[in-house]
Amino acid sequence: MADYAEMKSRFDGLKAEGLKLNMMRGKPETKQVALSIPMLSLITQREDMVRNGVDAANYGELAGMPEARRFFADILGCREEQVFVGGNASLTLMYDTVAKAFTHGLLHSSSPWAKQEGLKFLCPVPGYDRHFRITESFGFELISVPMDEIGPDMDMVEELIKDPKVKGMWNVPKYSNPAGIIYSEETVRRIASMKPAAEDFLLMWDNAYCVHEFDGDYVEMPDILSLCEKYGNADMVFEFASTSKVTFPGAGISCFACSEANMAYMKKLLGVQMISADKMNQLRHVLFLKDKENTIAHMKKHAVIMKPKFDMVCDMLDREIAPEGIATWTRPKGGYFVCVRTKPGLAKRTVELCKEAGVAVTPAGATHPYGIDPDDSVIRIAPSFPPIDELEKAMEVFCVCLKLAAAEKNV
Ligand SMILES: Cc1ncc(COP(=O)(O)O)c(C=O)c1O
236 and 107 share a domain? Predict the structure, then answer.
């Protein structure tokens, strides 16, 4: 165990430096965002705005530019007719899907969720706080389901979905936020073949990191839509993706993909809400990214910037923390996070000490429903945004704080 006096003095020394560093934000650094600047000059005149008879500069095509639908279908491995291309953020589409289930019901709902009592939603943990907050805001009881390196505990899921009040489940199947794991083929198969008691069970499949490898080759995932179809669950799933971390976060394009029956139902509801999304941005993106192959090549440029940061973070944890035996962590090959699991009871104190020393880290607990991690053990590190020299300093502080927290509690 690290010596308390030594750690306290290292901590005081770092604190005295008056640092102001941030490992909280899962967003690309400026150099990554700059990779997509050439996209902005691809539409400069009137002729560029019309593609195959569709005018991107005018109303129409509720489900998006056909080229953009084809683009996401290529990336996700589904059919073009199953894709609805929306605006700048997939989170909006996710919120909207839950909201529509609430106000109008889903295709197979006997009544809108708002008219049903005591509804529950499954939340694999650790997970993405914004997912949990969506279902929390609609009054769902959030049920934590532990995840390991191949996905959520499916024995537990299969038990829980026998309850008709369990209406859905969040998922980030590839490079999950924050664990960085990829669901195994068997996990995906078990999910696609579930037999929930709720006739309107909503499988939220957030494929946010579908092309986001920074280490090694592209990893293929099974198409969840056709797999659900195969098991008689075609209408159970909504898949989501966006180019937020491919081009510009907040200024990319997003989509949902679902069965043709769901698409017809959703288009009826969405047609009341909007005439069409920003097709100019959709067209710009398609002209720039072209197809899956070219997008994967573009992501390699992101990888050159991302990989050294993740390597540095994991190497430092190996060097500084592994010998102490006070935490374990993931070594992801894609996505945006490293997930550190401390011995129970150390996460909050570590984050608090980091803050005191001028390093912002995602609040402990954020990875769990209601912001409560019962073991007080999970800390999400986001290495992407700070330049590498700042990240290195921030990680030095993090390691000292974790060791100090452990020494304080004598673990
Ligand atoms: C799992 C996951 N889904 C969705 C988002 C946000 O995506 P968008 O910008 O398309 O709303 C994030 C951003 O961090 C994320 O980690």
Answer: yes
Q: For the chain, what is the domain count?
A: 2
How confident is the model over 7-24, as pLDDT tens digits?
Answer: 999 999 999 999 999 999
- Residue 15 zone, left/alpha/beta (φ > 0; ψ -120 to 50; rest): alpha
Model confidence pLDDT, tens digit, residues 200-216? 999 999 999 999 999 99
101 falls within a domain: yes
In which domain, by residue range, is 48 found? 39-289
The residue among 289, 315, 330 that closes a domain is 289
| Residue 53, domain member (yes or no) | yes
Q: Is the pLDDT of residue 1 over 80?
A: no
Long-range contacts of 103-106 (CB under 8 A, 24+ apart): 104/269, 105/200, 106/200, 106/202, 106/235, 106/262, 106/265
> CA 365 → CA 26, 91, 369, distances in Å?
16, 21, 8
Nearest alpha carbon to residue 201 among 105, 132, 118, 270: 105
CATH number where 347 lies: 3.90.1150.10
Last residue of a domain, one of 289, 321, 356: 289
CA 61 / ligand 1 centre spacing (Å)? 25
pLDDT digits (tens, 9 = 90+) for 236-251: 999 999 999 999 999 9
- Residues near ligand 1 (Cβ within 6 A): 26, 89-91, 128, 172, 177, 206, 208, 242, 244, 249, 254
Beta bridge partners of 146: 125
